Sequence to fold (321 residues):
Amino acid sequence: MLGQVVELIEKKHKFAITSHMRPDGDGIGSGLALYWMLHSLGKEVEVVLRDRVPPAYLVLPGSEDVLVQPDINRAYDAVFLMECSDVERPGLPSLHHQLIVNIDHHSTTEPFGHINWIDPTAGAVGEMIYNLCKALGSEVTKEIAECIYTALLTDTGSFHFSNTTERSLKIASELVRRGVEPARISQALFYSYPFSKIKLLGMVLSTIERDESGKIAWVKVDRETMYEADASEEDSDGIVNHALSIDEVMAVAFFKELSPKVYRISLRSKGKNNVAKVAEVFGGGGHRNAAGCRIEGDFEEVRQRVIEGLQAAVGVAPIAV
Ligand SMILES: [Mn+2]
Fold:
């Protein structure tokens, strides 16, 4: 709970912050916001990530201080895990030996930490960190504001998704008042892509398919295409959302080949169609409109199982595709 987090921060001194592998805007934004907040309280704090900060997020203050390490190798009073479904998600094996504070807004997350603060009503973990800032009586500095704004902007799909609420817009407004320049953040996040990302987007979108109902669509990227586009792993992030921009399409899947017969699947949907339930069937998780999982097997078989799951979620008859 929030109260326990506040008490811990007030009593202890030496902290680390981490997030999941392949960190996104909410993981990095909320983590760095907490980093600045703890700093301002005179705490000793480090941000440790297994994977590097994607170039787009280097716009964030503090991103240059992030330690990119294969493990956590110091003792801390506590380690904050930002939006991780379990203690393995950060990819830092020795986390087991630390006091874990699990901060998340995914309803599918188990209370695996010593302290668990899970708020599924929050549009982003960044929103929770804003609340923490208020609870601690900390000033929302420009640094904190930029980090939280980025978390909100990315997790709400630029304020397009259903987690965009009066509260998130109110917080965004307050953050702008604190010095955030929305156009500057957007420019860094959405208008500074490497050539390879757009090249890959074109190649992948040209393979789009849909089922007979027309309500389910999917795209796929294999290692060869990644190689041909000279793409980095981050370049494939966000492609799934383009498939969802088709009028009749209600749910989409993006199949990314990680290695032979291993696929990471990103699922997205519109409205009440729940893709988190589909991801959970395969051991994954997420939110109603954005979820993911990992499946091993032959592509055709994997594709069919996922598409059948999406058809059930959207309520169209499972038809052979
Ligand atoms: Mn999030």
